[in-house]
Amino acid sequence: MGVRRCGKSTLLKLFTDELRRLKIPNKNIIHINFESMKYRNITDCNIFYDYIADHIPEKGKAYLLIDEPQNVVGWEKAVNSFKVDFDCDIYITGSNARLLSSEFSTLISGRYVEIELYPLSYKEYLDFHDIEKNDQTFQAYLKYGGVPSIVELGDNVDRINDVLDGIYNTVIIKDVIAKSKIKDAELLQKIVAFLADNIGNSTSANSIANSLVSEKRIENTKKSPAASTVENYIGAL
After folding, report:
1. Fewest CB within a 10 Å sphere: which of 39, 59, 96, 206?
2. Where are the domains of the chain?
């Protein structure tokens, strides 16, 4: 489980490499990434089950590596059935805004282990970029964060900002707004900006609502948003 672009799919690929290093036959490793158009026809649990059943090896344990299955209707029914019908280990990734821990525990019956994955720590950031620990690299880490994919962009600030902006918009718009059924996307983004500007300061829903108007973050209105709305939006975040 982890935020978008933190490296979940890469972790699955590394695990696949480890299985092959341990001489697990390729036919026993079934890796599906549902973000690939290759699997666009697997739309519900029945098709999903049939696909896996057709690829299960006759001998030996199967290793099922399933990347982002949330768009498959009833995917959890298929996964629970795999555990009953086949000799297999199952590994699933999920963006935590789309598949929260509390939901996962109700969807998957029986025992499972949740591994939380985060962007790079500062030490990992140094290793990733092959750079030394100093004030300059720490300031860069504070500014750009630990998203692994930006290591490929070097010092291209414009490209880095484009990547980070894309991740931000995806999380806010596609995850938070869609999941929590936010009606006022502009207000949500104003609240995000306010919170980012006021890290470390004590505040309240009322003061945020009033500040958004007084600082002219919300245009063409003299009325503050309701404190309950601000509280709900912060809860969604």
Report:
1. 59
2. 8-107, 122-181, 183-237
